[in-house]
């Protein structure tokens, strides 16, 4: 299949998909895109705007995975806003733009991932672990390992999450902040494989959103 992996990060969702498919990954941070390319040298990696790329190239693919920016939707944003006076910001509606667009115009299988939001979702998702998923195929329930909220130093946080996701970022000379961002934004690899397989192992159905 031809697969489009949008807002790819360092590929947590893609890690266990194997190399039998033709994967195109889009990531807008060059340092992150370079690390993705080292982990997945057979993938085509594009540094650019994933939202724009989707609109211009969606017809070229059989399966699309998208993970649009999540901070403006997260429960943490509301918590920090109340407690710390975080700067006001509108939710980034690219998330819902892509859900509506893919639902009506894309002929293949698709899934969009995001965090559990501080508001009731405008379009009904599936919930798996600590994430929402919108898709045009059924996603069964799956338990994820609990992510413990720990008081750790930056170094300890990186080591903890590298172990959790089976990633090693020790050789990359990027800031601790960027490493933590990459690890925080990852989909648990086994969940990424579980959802990918769900698209092709169930009766062909289209989920009707309410």
Question: What is the fold named in CATH at topology level?
Answer: Rossmann fold
Q: What does the radius of gyration come to? A: 17 Å
The main pleated sheet reads as: 7 strands, mixed
- Let me know the number of strands: 7
**Spatial ordering of strands, largest sheet:** 3-2-1-4-5-7-6
What is the second-level CATH architecture?
A: 3-Layer(aba) Sandwich
Task: Point out poorly predicted stretches.
Answer: 203-210
Instruction: Provide the β-strand percentage band.
Output: 15-25%
Mean pLDDT value: 87
CATH class (first level) name: Alpha Beta
Our count of domains comes out at: 1
**What is the chain-wise order of helices and strands?**
EEHEHEHHEEEHHH
Amount of helix: 25-40%
C-alpha termini separation: 30 Å
Find the structural class using helix and strand composition: alpha/beta
- CA-based shape: globular
Structure, described:
The structure is a single chain. This protein is an alpha/beta fold. It has a single domain, classed as 3-Layer(aba) Sandwich (Rossmann fold), CATH 3.40.50. 35% of the residues lie in helices and 16% in strands. The chain is built from seven helices and seven strands. The protein has a seven-stranded mixed β-sheet, sandwiched between helices. It is globular and about 45 Å long.
């Amino acid at each position: 299949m031809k697969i489009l992996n949008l807002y790819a990060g360092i590929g947590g969702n893609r890690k266990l998909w194997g190399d039998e498919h033709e994967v195109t990954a889009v990531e807008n941070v060059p340092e992150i895109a370079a690390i993705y390319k080292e982990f997945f040298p057979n993938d085509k990696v594009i540094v650019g705007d994933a939202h724009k790329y989707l609109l211009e190239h969606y017809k070229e693919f059989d399966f699309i995975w998208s993970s649009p920016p999540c901070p403006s939707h997260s429960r943490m944003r509301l918590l920090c806003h109340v407690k710390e006076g975080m700067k006001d910001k509108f939710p980034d509606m690219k998330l819902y733009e892509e859900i509506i667009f893919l639902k009506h115009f894309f002929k293949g299988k698709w899934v969009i991932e995001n965090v559990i939001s501080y508001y009731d979702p405008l379009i009904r998702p599936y919930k798996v672990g600590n994430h929402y998923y919108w898709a045009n195929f059924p996603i069964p329930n799956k338990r994820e390992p609990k992510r413990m909220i720990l008081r750790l130093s930056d170094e300890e946080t990186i080591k903890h999450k590298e172990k959790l996701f089976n990633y090693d970022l020790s050789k990359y000379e990027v800031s601790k902040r960027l490493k933590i961002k990459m690890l925080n934004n990852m989909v648990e690899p086994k969940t990424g494989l579980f959802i990918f397989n769900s698209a092709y192992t169930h009766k062909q159905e289209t989920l009707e959103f309410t």
